[in-house]
Amino acid sequence: MVCLNFIPLLVLLLGFGLGDAFPSDALKKTCSLSKYRFLVPHVLEAVQKMQQQFDDIMLLSDRKCRTLLFHRRKSLVTAELSVPDRLMLVEAELDFAITMLGLPASTRFAETRQRPLAFLTQAQEDLRVCMAIEAPSHQPSRKLRHQLQKLETARKTETTGCLEATAILHLFQMLNDLQCAARRDQCT
């Protein structure tokens, strides 16, 4: 009987000892974006539902947007950027989208965007971990700096309504960019 009571205590002591051998920060220091290589259908459906609902809202508003923020002559992420540049661009795009999806909205639309917002927030956190591990002092290329400057200029010059519309209507492009970043050098 005494031996059986000793086992849980031994397991507890070993757990504390192993915890010192493997600090919790060391366990978190891995970069894995593989879960973003192929997006699950329920996320894509949630984004599509949100975009459709937003299209209905746009029809009732007078938003006239002329920003060319996401218009690229070809896929900048896949064809022209290094892997660290891709990570930086996608993180900036997700930051933009998360900010716009976080704006006040009607109750119905706020509910519709919860799943896409949660997904984008998790992806952004994962990208930040990867950037901190793989490229903590990476300097963006000229092409990336140009794209980031375009994003920053739009944030300063466009209306909030226009920025929100741009973010929501281009979410699938951002998701494609995320998939490309997750595929690393295999993205073509």
UniProtKB/TrEMBL annotation:
Would I find Signal among this entry's keywords? Answer: yes
Q: Where is the signal peptide?
A: 1-21
- BP GO terms, sorted: cell surface receptor signaling pathway via JAK-STAT; defense response to virus; innate immune response; positive regulation of immune response
Going by the entry's taxonomy, the superkingdom of the source organism is recorded as Eukaryota
Cellular location of this protein? Secreted
Identify the InterPro entries for this entry.
Answer: IFN-lambda_sf, INF_lambda
Q: Does the keyword Secreted apply?
A: yes
Q: Which GO terms describe its cellular component?
A: extracellular space
What's one Pfam family the UniProt record gives for this protein?
IL28A
Alphabetical keyword list = Antiviral defense, Cytokine, Secreted, Signal
The principal location of this protein is: secreted
Which GO MF terms does the UniProt record name?
A: cytokine activity
The family assignment reads:
Belongs to the lambda interferon family.
Please report the name of this protein according to its UniProt entry: IFNL3 protein
The protein's organism comes out as Tricholaema leucomelas (pied barbet)
